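ok so i was messing around last nite and threw this chain in just to see what happens. nothing serious, just curious
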Amino acid sequence: MSFVTHRENSLTWLTSPQLSGVRHGFSTRGGGVSPAPFDSLNLRTGCGDSPENLRENFRRFCGAIGADVGRVVLAKQVHETTVRRCTAADAGKGLWSERDYTADALITDEKDLPLAVFSADCGIILLYDPVHPAIGAIHAGWRGCAGGIVEKTVRELERAYGSRPADLRAAVGPCIGRCCFETDGDVPAAMTAALGGDAAPYLERRGAKWHVDLAGLNRQWLLRAGVPAKHIDMCGLCTACRPDLFWSHRKMGEARGVQCAMLSLTECSH
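result:
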């Protein structure tokens, strides 16, 4: 695991060396102002936390990673495979103005337009093309993973901005691990239908249940899309195992906040 942990006062966040050319971070749950059960750096809209708390939490996180909180674009996630191409017209949507879209992945080539996706167990992946400067942020829970949203986002970066998969850098953030992601047969069946034999190493039968390596499956999609293994960084932390750092839907239900992954191109991104 080559992710780096940063701490500033009570705020903790993670970064990946693969994304060193862009401002980015994977948030954790500490360092915000939200009360229980959202304590404390909740970045989840529409859950009962106040808008004032959310905006202060975003100010703190964006301040830590150097992103413009006034222009951040938030995904509106529905566990599907829509990829949205974001422009300056989307700046502030989800935090300062309403979102007029649903999308589980966001892409852009515009500078200082931070993109954010969210997780409380699901996979979150950040992509960066340093050659034709462009970025992507992906929410890939098991449904999105099985639907191929990771590969679709790589293809959309290629189509929209000329990005070559071989040039992309990828960081696969914290998500529920094989240790805790116990399922019935529907999830392995969906993964096998999508990835064929390539899914097998990430699916483990334990008695009547299966244990699923969601991060590994999302990495497999990156490889299938043409992203070199040497350009893929894996966080390796399980959101369900680390309630000190993360919220987990599996462990906590709906009474919780969420963490986010965010990245933004700068004038110096190359």
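not much to say yet. The longest strand covers residues 123-129.
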